[in-house]
Structures are given as structure tokens and as C-alpha cells.
Design brief:
- The chain is built from 8 helices and no strands.
- The protein has 190 residues and is mainly α.
- It folds into 2 domains: 60 residues, Arc Repressor Mutant, subunit A, CATH 1.10.10; 129 residues, Orthogonal Bundle (Tetracycline Repressor, domain 2), CATH 1.10.357.
- The protein is elongated.
- The termini are far apart.
- 25% of the residues are buried.
- The mean pLDDT is 88.
Length: 190
Amino acid sequence: MSPENQPTRTRSRRVDAERNRAAILAAARRLFDERGAEVALDEVAKSAQVANATLYRHFATRADLLVAVYAEEVVELDELSQRLLGRTDPAQALTDWLRAFVHHVATKRDLALAIPDEPDSDRGTRFNEWHSTMRTAAERLLTRAQESRAVRPEVAVTDLLALASSIALAGRTPAGVDAMLDLIRDGYRS
């Protein structure tokens, strides 16, 4: 093989590997949402249309896959908060993010709890990082809403997140969640 063909093959392999990884994550996310975190990894591989060996090459253990799926969810919440900063109504942007956060806690709690807390794992560190990311995401929206005087200045991000988490754990219908978020919004508005 000539040297000039080598980089193209390597790039092609990297593209394939990234495509396989994305397919595995998408399949795992869908299956975990539908049936819980105990879905057999063979089913994840089959759904992603990759060989079991390919799945294990990307995610050596179930815990590695759980962490990757959950981390993806946290990144999406962070990205959502950044997109919402562009909204003209800062209070509504905050409420929209809180709604997404409530949905996250309500639907991803079992996934987070399925991540093993083994002696050699860094579960605690990861959880602290994820919580910090979500707190920062909420804080940037809260600060903007407070600066626009749409939200009372004494409202603390930790209080908002605690209230939103409580709503998520209450197991309400989507309409019930909206009603409870409206109550919170009425409480934090100026």
C-alpha cells in the first residue's frame, strides 16, 4: 500500500468508528428510555446494527455505556441553556429550561442510579461534575432573568433546582408538571 493511501484509510476508519459509536449511543438511549438500563448489551448492539465486539470496543462495560449515555443527556441540557440565552423573554427561557430539567430528572433518574458505585469507580466525581454543569446552565439563565428584572433578585439557583427536582419526583402528568412550573414561575417573578 502506498503511503498516500494510508491517511485516507485511517480517516475512513475513524469516520466509521465515530458513526458506530453514535449508533450505539442512540440505540442505548432509545432502549434505556423504553425498557430501563438493564437492557442486554447484545440488544443494544443489534439495534445499533453493529457487532457485539464493536460495542465492547467502544464501551468495555455496561457502566461505560451508562456513563456515556447519561453524560450526553447532561451536555444537551447545557447546550439548551446556551441556546435559550438568545430568547427575548428571559423569564420564559428560564421556565423552558426548568421544564427540560424536570423531564430529565423524571426520565433519567433510574439511568443515573444504574451507574455502579464501585470502589474503583469515579461515580461521585462524575455526579459532582454533572450537577455542576446543570447548576451552571440554570444559573446563566437565572442571572439573565434577574438582570432583566423579570425574576426576583433573592431567588437562588439551588432553590429553583430543588423545586424542579421535587416536581420531577412527584410523578405528575405533563399537564401537572406545567401547572407546578407555573406556580414556581409565579413565585420567582418580580
